[in-house]
Every structure is written in structure tokens, then in C-alpha cells.
TrEMBL record, chain A:
The keyword Oxidoreductase applies. One of its GO terms (cellular component) is cytoplasm. The lineage of its organism: Bacteria, Pseudomonadati, Pseudomonadota, Alphaproteobacteria, Acetobacterales. Residues 7-309 form the FAD dependent oxidoreductase domain. It comes from Endobacter medicaginis. Keywords: Oxidoreductase. This is Glycine oxidase. GO terms for molecular function: glycine oxidase activity. Pfam families: DAO.
From TrEMBL, chain B:
The lineage of its organism: Bacteria, Pseudomonadati, Pseudomonadota, Alphaproteobacteria, Acetobacterales. It is found in: Cytoplasm. InterPro entries: Aldolase_TIM (IPR013785), Thiazole_synthase_ThiG (IPR033983), ThiG (IPR008867). This is Thiazole synthase. The gene is thiG. Keywords: Cytoplasm, Schiff base, Thiamine biosynthesis, Transferase. It comes from Endobacter medicaginis. The active site is at K98 (schiff-base intermediate with dxp). Residues 5-251 form the Thiazole synthase ThiG domain.
Amino acid sequence: MRIVLRGAGVAGLVAATCLAEAGREVVVVDPAGVPTRSGASHLAGGMLAPWCEAEAAGAVLVERAAGAIDWWAAHVPGVVRAGTLVVASSRDVPDLARFAARTSGHERVDAEAIAELEPALAGRFTQGLFFPGEAHLDPRRALDALAGALRRHGVACLEAEPAPLPGDRRLDCRGTAATDALAGLRGIRGEMVMLSSREVALSRPVRLLHPRIPLYVVPRGDGRFMVGATMLEGGRAGPMTLRSAVELMNAAYALHPAFAEAEMLELGAGLRPGFDDNLPALIRDAAGVWHANGAFRHGFLLGPWLGAQAVSALD
Amino acid sequence: MGFSLYGVELASRLLLGTAQYPSPAVLADAVRASSAGVVTVSVRRETGGAASGQQRFFALLGELGVRVLPNTAGCHSAREAIATAQMAREIFETDWIKLEVIGEADTLHPDPFGLVEAARELTADGFRVLPYCTEDLVTAAHLRDAGCEVLMPWGAPIGTGRGLNNVYGLRALRAHHPDIPLIVDAGIGLPSHAAAAMELGFDGILLNTAVAGAGDPVAMARAMALAIEAGRAGFEAGPVPMRDMAAPSTPVLGTPFQ
């Protein structure tokens, strides 16, 4: 029996890969192309950071993310295992203690250790946390690689729905586009900036603690950096606001003043899909359609977990 | 004695902010544990100017059966705050507004001039204004002249968790305005801070970070509710005055006049 999978973002492509590897016949459908160039996956940070993310999401995230870094390293090129560095400005140092108390898998670093990890940040921060077990990837390249591998293995990647066959099973991975079908799903707005700078070099994602926004700068190689990301409830779509742009750019500037001369390559805004508990789930709706959705900030981190759930559910 | 704001009776003296929780599910559990009857929502900072009040996040607040008090957090002028209040009225279909006009970036100190100006215009436009202010007596008098029937002085700057920075000032504010509800808004970090404010005779507490940022937000929500109830009960019970020398509760034999 064929599985018609809708949605070629990270949830869909990882699920399709897991299903194909389990010997299932899968067809991937997305009107925006495979992989899609719109939606949350396209704007993702690409941090594989279970220990940092557990600060808000709790230990369940670390459990479900087990094996995620290895999964990505086995499936796509460009997974960098260099950890995550967390720093705070001097006025926000109490937040660093709070972050440390809420997370595990880190070591405290002083000015000297920070300079050793990231020479560009030498002399700029006196205290931080280093999470050596974390990794990052470039989401767009990773999704290209997954889609390429699916095609090479004969998985049909379509922009239009195929003619239905008897016994078709359906798996919906469309993120916030599925809000109408899933009453508990909501969109959490996120905004990001892509910068290009030859003056700053970073080896790993750097998080700058901020009272409201989980701010981070992720190096993407070739002097490109992704700065993210806001978190706004209410489901508003549309372009980035000036306030968000200013806050994200200020964060990059606070991390390193040379970012002031960076070129702005892209301002992106989109909606992450989330359930009430901000954890992904595999759900069967009244029409018998399975949904792999609600990955929130963790599409790449929890994609492999969600894919494994889909394989069991659609057995 | 009951607690009412603009004629609306409220069972709980705790008003809870909705920002910075780990998830909406935790927020909902915290609201339930706190028994808060009012929750504040930042139109700008949390929703980015929400397009639809029907969205899941708001539906969830609706399911809690609480009254939504939209706020103008992030506004730095009377104009901005007025525009945000008008947007909030459309989204949440309420004429209540927690008015915030920030005057200084490091302390988020309210701008008294912008606050009074915005309060006057919004009241004239039919809003019920709950201004986030300081314990300053002159500003308080102007806010009342502008039509505010509730005042919400800070305990300490937003998010600092420092408690009541100026107990003398808060006591004076209470003494000067015995006839309207006064709510300590911002700066509460511990249940004891909330209890202390209630013991001073304040009518309620509005807080957010102390619960949302706690290791267990739901447990802290309950702790705050208990502290507020205890503080209020203590105030109503008529506390004994403080004195310098020991006052033995039973006479000490042979020293009747010492």
C-alpha cells in the first residue's frame, strides 16, 4: 500500500526517508516543490541543540532527540559537531546562572576558554556555558540532500496530488498549513536575518541570552550567518517587523560590533507549527489521515523521532 | 471584603501575565493553579499585532474562562500606546487596557507625562484604563484626574524580582488613595514579596516573570496565590503595631512597670 505524504519541509522529508528506508512505498507531494522553499523549515536555524533547548522544553526533549545528530550525520553532508556556546552580556549574567541550572550537558567557560573556542569573541564575554555534545547544519542544504536522496531511490516527488489508488494511506506533514485539519495546532511566528560578513568568524552556534528572545547566531559557512529568532504568539503571517529586525540585528551587533558592516542577505518571517505543549506528535484525524506535526522550534532536532513514530504508526 | 475592578467582581486578587512560559500548556496549568481571574496579554510583544482573536493561543485563554487584560508593553510614547490600545480593543473585544508607556530603557521606568496623556485620551474614548505607574503621588493624582479608577504601581522594575523597592512610597500611595483599588504590578520575585504588598493593604498583585520563569511555573503560581491570600488575610486581621522593646505577653512577676 502506497503512502501519499503531503508537505516537503523537514517533517515530511525526514518521515519520507524513514518510511522509504523501512521499505514502504512513498510519494511526496508539495505544491511549493520538493524540498519546499517556503515555511518554517526554510527559515530554521539548523541547531541540533537538545541540551540548550531543554531549558524551556524540559528533559523530554533530550530523550526524544537522542540519536538525532547521528541520524543527520548519516543522511546529509555538512553536519558540524562543534557544540554550542552560550554567553550573556554583563547585565544579564544572572540569566546565565538560571540557564545553567535548567540545563545539563554543559561546562562553564571563562574569558580565556571563550577566546579559545571562538577567537573572534576574545575579550568580549567573561562568562559562558559550552555544550560540547551539540551540532549544527545548514537546513536548506540538508533538505536538498534529503530530497536528492529520495529521488535517487526512486521516491516520486510531485507538486500536484497523484491520482488516488485504492488502499492509499495519507500522512500530512504540512506544518501550519494543516491548522484547519488540526484544531490544537497553532502558528508561532518566527523571524530571522541572514548576514554576510568577512570580518567575523565563528565555528559554532553562539547563543546570547536575552530577557525575551532566544537569540542565536549560526555560522553557515562562506561568511554567512543566520541570526534568529523571534517567538510571537497570535499566528500573524506577513513580512518581518522593524522591531524584530532591530532586535535581531542589535543582538548580532552586541555579539560582535563588526557585524555592523555585514551585508543583509535576507529578512525572513514565517510560522512554526506547535501544539499546546510545544512538542511534536503523530495524530490520526477523523478522516483517517495521519499527521506528523507540531515540531515547533525543533523540526530538525525531533524530525528523526517523528519519522520513527510515522514508521510505527503506518506499519 | 470583595475585590472589584471597574465594577467587575473578581474572586482572585492575582492577575497573571502570559509571556515567557515554556508552552501554552504550562501557561494554562499555571493559570488554573493560581486561580487568577485576569490574565494580561501583550498585544505587541507576544502577538506582534495578532490578526485574529480566534487563533489557538487566544482560544486557549478563552477555555480557561479568564478575563483578558490586554497591555501596551513595548510602547514608548502616548501615541503608540493609544494605537496599541485601539488594536487591542478590536482583537480582544474588551475596553480594559493595562496602559504601559515606557520612559527609560534600562529600568523600564514609566513615562509619567506620556502615561497621563494617554490615560486621558483613552478614558475619553471609552476605555477602562489600568495604568502601570510608579508610587509617585503627583503622577497618581494626575492619573486619577485623567479618569483612572485603578492604579498599578511597580514594586520594582519589570523582570527584576527585587520585591518592594520603596515600601515607604507604596505605603504613602495607599494612604493617599484609600478609596480605589491599588495593584502592585512588576518586580515581584518571591511569594513573600507578594504577601508583603498585600500586608501593606494593596488590593492585588500582577506578576509574570516570577511564575513563568520559575523552575516549576505551576507550583510557583500556587505559591503566589497562597501568599496573596495570606497577606490579604493578615491585613484584614489588623496586624499588631511594630515596637522597639519586648512586650511580654504575660506579666513578669515583680517588675510590673518595666
